[in-house]
Design a protein that fits this description.
By secondary structure, the chain is an alpha/beta fold. 49% of the residues lie in helices and 13% in strands. It has 13 helices and 10 strands.
Length: 322
């Protein structure tokens, strides 16, 4: 079985192997096994902070960038209106919490589909957190429209690609997959990769994530809408980490040593995963082979907390009967 490796999957694996196992091995939207479908639906649970960050991402990638590519004016008020509509629709949907409906087909639910971690494990959405989430969505959009350097990159680009899958073979039976928030092709200027961050403090330096995106862009098969004959090297790309809640923009330039470090990170992480799974499919693997985290806060935030705590000790035959 070909395994997919991504930066987010590697972080999940290092935090808790069992969490990674549930999301990347067990979860399935199409399997007849009801337990696997349950795990798939649980994998869609979001924290309120992750949800509000995704709303900002969706407004940028699905409305702002397409408008820029068409040369259509898109104002801050347009962005706020779009975000408010999405916020209200998803909040209403999420409060209904349809996650127990194993016949639910997420692909048919459209953009309104949202399920909240707090609804599953607390039974309610704290009002003050919802209010803060909207305030932070507004703040992120206001800051974005006030960042002249970021606006210049976007407006001066020949073509902007949001949330495009980049993949290449990392090692035997392992495919590397990356989804940069923005790839901006800028004619004679270096192409740029932008990663939006919606963190309250924004102290984390995302150079490794951006380096991995740069490597992926340099090695993937170009998509049809990439510039004709597009080729690049990781060190040639302009990499931007944009903290939308703090208005901090970090530009990263890659040295040879950093590229090597990022490559080693990918290979070592993928090798560790491959050694544990040995190319096996779900039916070949045993949940007990995947270690749990030693950090209580990781468990508290985990989407799979209930099934991990309650069922991890159950034999496979019984586990499949749920």
């Amino acid at each position: 079985m070909v395994m997919r490796w991504s930066y987010s999957a590697s972080r999940s694996f290092r935090q808790c192997q069992r969490q990674w196992y549930f999301k990347n091995v067990v979860a399935s939207a199409i399997a007849n096994d009801l337990f696997r479908k349950q795990v798939y639906l649980l994998s869609k649970l979001q924290s309120i902070s992750a949800w509000r960050g995704k709303i900002v991402d969706d407004v940028i990638s699905k409305t702002l960038i397409p408008s820029l590519n068409r040369g259509v004016r898109f104002t801050l008020q347009d962005a706020k209106n779009c975000a408010r509509g999405l916020f209200d629709r998803q909040l209403a949907y999420g409060r209904g919490h349809p996650i127990d409906d194993l016949g639910l087909q997420v692909s048919k639910e459209g953009d309104d589909f949202t399920v909240f971690h707090a609804m599953e494990y607390q039974g309610e959405l704290p009002k003050h957190e919802i209010q803060r989430a909207w305030c932070e969505v507004e703040t992120a959009l206001v800051n974005l429209f006030s960042m002249d350097d970021v606006k210049y990159i976007l407006k001066s680009s020949d073509y902007i690609v949001p949330q495009r899958a980049l993949q290449f073979t990392l090692m035997n039976d392992v495919t590397m997959l990356a989804y940069p928030d923005v790839i901006a092709f800028r004619g004679d200027a270096p192409s740029a990769i932008i990663d939006w961050k919606v963190h309250a403090f924004g102290t984390h330096d995302a150079w490794l994530q951006l380096a991995i995106y740069a490597i992926a862009l340099s090695r993937c098969n170009p998509h049809r809408d990439f510039p004709s004959g597009f080729e690049t090297q990781p060190q040639e790309l302009a990499l931007y980490e944009v903290q939308l809640l703090t208005s901090v923009v970090r530009k990263h330039s890659l040295e040879k040593e950093q590229i090597v470090e990022a490559e080693e990170y990918m290979i070592n992480s993928a090798y560790e995963m491959a050694c544990l799974t040995e190319g096996g499919k779900y039916v070949d693997l045993n949940i007990e082979d995947f270690q749990t985290t030693i950090h209580a806060e990781t468990c508290q935030r985990c989407a799979f907390r209930a099934i991990c705590w309650e069922k991890s000790h159950v034999g496979r035959d019984k586990l499949l009967s749920y």
